[in-house]
Write a structure and sequence with these properties.
Structural class: alpha+beta
Strand order of the largest sheet: 4-3-2-1-5-8-7-6
CATH architecture: 3-Layer(aba) Sandwich
Distance between the termini: 26 Å
Strand content: 15-25%
Low-confidence stretches: none
Number of helices: 7
CATH class: Alpha Beta
CATH superfamily: Class II aldolase/adducin N-terminal domain
Shape: globular
């Protein structure tokens, strides 16, 4: 599991989805969670930078301190036992939407409807605070991917790979939205086309 986190951290960095020491990654295994240490650069992780904690945040057998946002991860896992991995980062395009406190909902590409329905924005909370934990985690009752006002994005999945795919897809959608605005010819899906996509989303997520 630690090695998987190291690999995804490097992939996030190589794809310009994270920079410097921002962001954190975790995987849940039973009543234990493996999470990146505070102050670590996701693109340059080693296994010693991954800390083992319990569901109350207690650290085990590590000289490193777990991410200061560990309680946000734990709150999401407690709310959604089906989710086993979480990625939080400051990917540029999705974070731009978070900075504008603008949800990603415009139906300009099919993937946004099929993957997310929409990506909401959690109310602002000071980084690492209980307010941030509460504001962000509660939206995971209905969504797997959430923007954090003036902060970044959180994506969760049944596996770390699936969480990464959601985050990468969200960033691509945000980038496409911005570029389509620059071109100034954005046409929204609507009517039967939109209804068909929503119906397909329900079928895909009911499996």
């Amino acid at each position: 599991m630690k090695n998987e986190i190291v690999k995804i951290g490097k992939l996030l960095y190589d794809k310009d989805l994270t920079s410097a020491t921002s962001g954190n990654i975790s995987i849940r295994s039973g009543n234990k969670v493996y999470i990146t240490a505070t102050g670590t650069a996701l693109g340059f992780l080693s296994e010693k930078d991954v800390v083992e904690i319990d569901m109350d945040g207690k650290e085990f057998n590590s000289n490193e301190k777990a991410s200061s946002e560990k309680f946000m991860h734990l709150a999401i896992y407690k709310l959604r036992p089906d989710l086993k991995a979480i990625i939080h980062c400051h990917s540029p395009f999705t974070t731009a939407f978070a900075a504008c406190r603008k949800e990603l909902a415009a139906p300009i590409i099919a993937e946004n409807i099929l993957y997310f329905g929409k990506i909401p924005v959690a109310d602002y909370g000071m980084p690492s605070s209980q307010q941030l934990t509460d504001n962000t985690s509660k939206l995971f009752a209905d969504y797997d991917t959430v923007l954090m006002a003036n902060h970044g994005i959180v994506a969760a999945g049944e596996t770390l790979k699936k969480a990464f795919f959601k985050l990468e897809t969200a960033e691509t959608y945000a980038k496409t939205y911005v570029y389509s605005k620059i071109i100034d010819g954005q046409i929204l899906l609507d009517g039967k086309d939109l209804d068909d996509l929503k119906e397909l989303r329900i079928k895909l997520h009911s499996k």
